[in-house]
Structures are given as structure tokens and as C-alpha cells.
Amino acid sequence: MKAHIIREPRCALLWRFDASSAGYDAVERAARRCGVTLRTVGNGELGGIVGDLCAGKPAPAFAPLAAVPERPAIIISGLSHQTGELGRFIDLVRESGADLPLRAMVTPTSKGWTLSALLLELNREHEAVAEGGNA
């Protein structure tokens, strides 16, 4: 019996970063070069499951009443660290000059989280690191 390899969708969710944002065109070019689909997400997707959103599925009709910070984020799915493709994409995004202070890779754990839960966690981590740098 052959093993079935489940490939995660090659996607980058963009929170508070869209076509009107500085550097978006360069991020779009990086995504094309790496075969990554960009998906802008907003308040209407906060109740969506991260793995489902990366797969292009719609978010549920309800959204949680969570106050998620406005800090822009990119959440990447389906790129391999082992082959270097994740690093290559992150380097291209960084070189674009885009202001995306929150960057994350979808993990087996986080793909089952709601977008709001993941964004809140990323913001907590970002603030903890920033506070640690001021000590």
C-alpha cells in the first residue's frame, strides 16, 4: 500500500496588507516566482480555520468578537524549510520592503486554529520579543 502524502496548499494569507499597501506589488511578484497564492483576509475571515483559508475555503458566516490588532501579517502555508523554498520566499518578501512585522508558517497545530486565535498569538509573541529587546 502506498503512503498518501498530503501537500498543504501553497498560500500566503495577508492580514492588513493589500494591493494599496506599499510593497504589495513586490510581494505579489515573489509569490508568483515561488508558486504561492496570495489571499487577503480581513475581519470577515477571523472565524475561519487557518488551514481552510489557505485551501481557499470560505470563512463561516459568523466572525468572533475578538479585537485583533491592526499589525500587518503574512501567514505562509505549503513551503518547505528543508528544500529552502520557505527561506527563498521570506527573503524575497523581506527584500520587497513590505511592512509585514508578523510572519508565520502554518504548522500542524496552527492550521486548526481560527485566524483570530493565530493573529492574537502572533501579536503576543511580537510584543514579548519587543519587550525583551528593551530590557
Which terms would index this structure?
Macrophage Migration Inhibitory Factor, 34% helix, 135 residues
Give a summary of the structure in a few sentences:
The chain has 135 residues and is α/β, with parallel strands linked by helices. Helix content is 34%, strand content 14%. α1 runs antiparallel to α3.
Characterization of this structure:
The protein is built from 4 helices and 4 strands. The protein is an alpha/beta fold and 135 residues long. The protein has a single domain, classed as Macrophage Migration Inhibitory Factor. A 4-stranded mixed sheet has the order 2-1-3-4, with helices on both faces. Helix 1 (24-34) packs antiparallel against helix 3. The chain is globular, with a radius of gyration of 15 Å. The termini are far apart.
